[in-house]
Amino acid sequence: KTETAINIGIAAGLLDAQEGEQGRPVFTSSDFEVDGAFLMQDMVRRLRNVAEQARAAKEEACMFECLVIDGKCLEIALEPEHALDFVAACRACRTVICCRVSPKQKGAVVRLIKQAEKTITLAIGDGAN
Hints:
Layout: H1 2-11, E1 26-27, E2 33-34, E3 37-38, H2 40-59, E4 64-70, H3 71-77, H4 80-91, E5 93-99, H5 103-117
Parallel strand pairs: 1-4, 4-5
Antiparallel strand pairs: 2-3
């Protein structure tokens, strides 16, 4: 669950106990489900919105505290047509937490960020999700 991931981020010192005014965009698949159907376009719209906010925040030297995204939402965010928005959102965050993701998704995030940002990237986790 994303709540558990956030609590682990707080315990690890990656996040503040209280959400700061910069905000913490959270992408949880259940937030985009209606009657059991995942509304992909709503999730993509929200990702684009957060990416635009991130681009503006970066220009003003502001950052989101964190972005939290679960595996189902990450699957869509990593699609080629959405990857640049995902990178833009990540770029404006101190921390990015991907929860309930597969090892393949974890590797894809590292490759995408390394390729886009030419930076050292780390993925950690116990595999238990």
